[in-house]
Fold this protein.
Amino acid sequence: MTAVGQTRRVPRDPGLLLELSVSEGWGDGFPVIPPTRTAVGEMIAAVGRDGGEVLGLMAPTLAPATIHHVAVNAVLAGCRPDYFPVVVAAAEAMLDPAFNLLGIQATTHPAGVTAVIRGPIVERLGVNHRGNLLGQGWRANATIGRAIRLIMVNIGGAIPGVLDQATHGQPGKYTSCFAENDPDSPWPGRSIDGIDLRASSVTVFGTEAPHNIHDQGSATADGLLTTIAGVMSSGAYHQHTYGAHHVLLLGPEHAALCSRDGMSRTDVAAALHARLLRPGHVALPAGSAPGHGHATIRETSPGAAGDVQSGHGHGGGHQHGGGQSGGTADRHLFQAPDDIVILVGGGAGKMSNWIPCFGHSVPISLRIA
Amino acid sequence: MRSLITVFEPRAFASRIESDDELGEIPIGSGDRIGLLHNTKANGDLVLDQIELLLSRDTSITTVRVTKPTASMAAPGDVLAAFEGLSVVFTAMADCGSCTSWSCHDAVSLEHLGIPSVLVVSTAFKPLAKSIVATLGMPNVRMLVLEHPVGGLQPAAVASRVEAAYPAFRTRLRFSGGITG
C-alpha cells in the first residue's frame, strides 16, 4: 500500500501533468489540480479529522481509504475544501458492504456511482438541483462526482481494462452528482435511513446512465404515469430491475401534477409498481437471473436417477394475476414499490428522468458531518 | 530544465503480486463427493454438467450442486456450508466482471474453509481473476480456463469448450481407486 503522505515530483505545466496522469492511469482524461501539501492540508482541515484515519478497505484492491488519500483525490478532481465533507461521506457510504462496491467496480455492466445530496448544505455549496442538474456548469456537481470516481480508481484500483471491466461504461463514470430540489417539490422532505430532515446527507446509488421521460401533454397524473411506466417498462428486458433500486427523478412540473391529483411520493411509487409488469410472453435471455432467488441445493450421482436432496428455488419475480410458476402470467418488474426511489429535481419543463441501477446494490445514505 | 512541483501520490494501492503457480493437485477417490457451484451465469449449468460427466468417467462420484442467489454477490454462508467435507468444488461461470470478482471471493472463501476449489473462468476474464485472487492474498487459486465466450453458445459448443480445456487441467487431479474409464 502507498503510505499516507508519500510525495513525488511532477511537472508544473498543466498539459504535462495531464499527460502524466493519463499515462500512469491515475487520471480520468481531464486536467487535474496538483495535490500539493497546502491544497491537501486545506481539504483535510475542512473535516477536522486525522489524515491517517482509515474509513475502510476499498474494493477491489482492498487498499485502506484514508482521509488523506480521499483528500488527495478530491484536490485532483477540483473540489473546494468545503465540498470535502460530502466527498468523505460518499466515500464512507460506498464502503458499506450492502453497496456492493466490488461488483460495481469490476463489472462489465455500465455501472457508475451517483451521489444525491440533500439538506442545508445544498444551498451552501451551490449544488445544482434545478435546470441541467445532470449536466455541465456547476463546480460542486462536477467535482464532487469526479472525486468519487477518482477515489474509486486510485484507492479502489478500478483502472479501466484492468480491474474495471466495463464493456462500454457510460458518461456518468466521469461524474454523477446532483441535489434534490426540495424548494420546488410539492412534497415534504423525507427522512432517509433515520437521518434528521434538517441535517445534510448524501446517498450513493449504483447507477446506469439516465434516460429521459418526455411528457408534455398529460393533463392528469394518471396519464403521466402511463407515460413513465411506458419508458420504464423497457426494464422488462433489463436483468437488474427485480430486487434493485432505481431512481425516478421527477421534474418539478411532473411532481406538481402528481401532487395536484392527490398523490404522494409513496402513491407514485405504488402506482408505478402496479403498472410495471413484464408480460408473460417476454422471455429473458438464457441464464439471466432476474429473480434474485434463494440458493438451490441438490445432490446427485451421475448416471443414477433422481435427486437425493432438493432445495428451494425462486426466480423471475412475483407473479401478477395468480398464474402458476413457470407459466405465462405477467410479473412485476420491481420487487416492491420502495424499489422505485422517487426524487424531485430539475428546472422548468415537462421532463423526468429514469436512472436505472446496477442490480445487487443497495443505496446507502450517510449524514454529512 | 522542466519545472517540477511536489505533490502527494494519488494512489493508495500497491502493485499486486500475481502468480502463474497454482495450489496443489486434488486427490479424488472413488465415491467422493464433488461440489458444483453455479453462479446463475448463462451456460454455467452446462459447464458444470460437462465437468460432472468428465469426472464421472474417471471415477465414481456423487455431486452436490448449489445455485447461489446471484452472480454479482458472494455465495452466502449457507451455500458454502453445503460443501463442507467435499473433495473439491468447481465454481462456474466466471465470464464477466462482477461475476468473476465474486467467484474469486467464493473460491478463496472455500479454500479458507479447507475445501479445495477450482475457479472456472473464460480466457477473457482470466487476467481479472488473477488480479482479484492476488488482492485477496491467494494468487495461486486453481483455474480451469475455457475459451471465451461461454454465454450464448449452443449446448454442444459449451461441452466442446470444457472438453478442450479438461485434459490439461486433469493433470491437476489425482484419481485413486475405482477408475472407470
In short: The domain at 213-280+332-355 of chain A is CATH 3.30.2320 (hypothetical protein PF0899 fold). The first strand of chain A starts at residue 7 and ends at 11. The mean pLDDT of chain A is 90.
